[in-house]
Amino acid sequence: MPRKSIAVLAAALVLGLLVLNFIQQRREVQAQQEGRAAIERLARADQNRITYPDDAKPTLALPGGQVRAVRSLIEVGKPLHFGDYVWDDSAAISGAVWIRIDLTRQLVSVFRGEDEIGTAVILYGAPEKPTPKGAFKVIAKATDHYSRSYDAPMPYMLRLTNDGIAIHASRVRPNGATHGCLGVPMRFAELLYRVAGEGTEVFILADSAPALGKTA
Predict the structure, then answer these.
(1) Which residues contact 196 (CB under 8 A, 6 or more apart)?
(2) What is the rounded radius of gyration, in angstroms, for the C-alpha atoms of the chain?
């Protein structure tokens, strides 16, 4: 083969290798950019949740001196007012649903396993009709319950006691109270109704002690 042809072929091979190397570099840069973008998206999503390391999970106080560890809590970001709620079950992987109601703070927290999936401001019983405290389980539920005793609708009702104490949708407002039930915002009640069933544990407490404690 003439030397000139060999030189042209060699130059073409070198150019081809340079092009391939350039394409590979572009692909690597693109992959790195996509990886960074994915990490940034995850970081933004994580801003809505407080997640604790496995070796430093805090515990929540429950009635009877019990405690339960939690892995993550919703980052609400602002004080909740009457009628407000937050719901985010995107981080909860598995586990039974359970409900913690803090009468002192006038808040309900819903958990799936160790992850909080919802929280809202509540109404509770007036002094002459106080809400009972302790550990309960949902014994019945109904989407469109009407109380004959109090002549009042109780949408998305989760009954806790045989004498009618229940969690249900209500117009949560300042200076409002119930006849012992726990009133939650309508949309929150609907979301809670979907995930809670008969046997769901409900813990109601009124305690001035801190809600979160350190893991033993």
Answers:
(1) 97, 99, 110, 138, 141, 158
(2) 28
Two tokens, residue 107: 């808040």
pLDDT tens, 147-167?
766 656 789 999 999 988 999
CA 128 to chain centroid, in Å, comes to 33
Task: Check the CA dihedral 126-209-137-185 and report its sign.
Answer: positive
Q: How far apart are CA 12 and CA 23, in angstroms?
A: 16
d(CA 70, CA 48): 16
Q: How far apart are CA 155 and CA 146, in angstroms?
A: 8
Nearest C-alpha neighbor of 97 from the set 26, 200, 183, 192:
200
The sign of the torsion formed by the CA atoms of 131, 134, 140, 144 equals: positive
Alpha carbon 161 to chain centroid distance?
Answer: 26
pTM score of the predicted model: 0.74
Cβ-contact 168, 186 below 8 angstroms:
no
Residue whose tokens read 């609400």:
76
Tokens of 2: 């003439």
Q: What is the pLDDT of residues 32-90, one digit of tens each?
A: 444 444 433 433 345 688 999 988 999 999 999 999 999 999 998 888 999 999 999 88
Dist CA 204 CA 126 (whole Å): 15
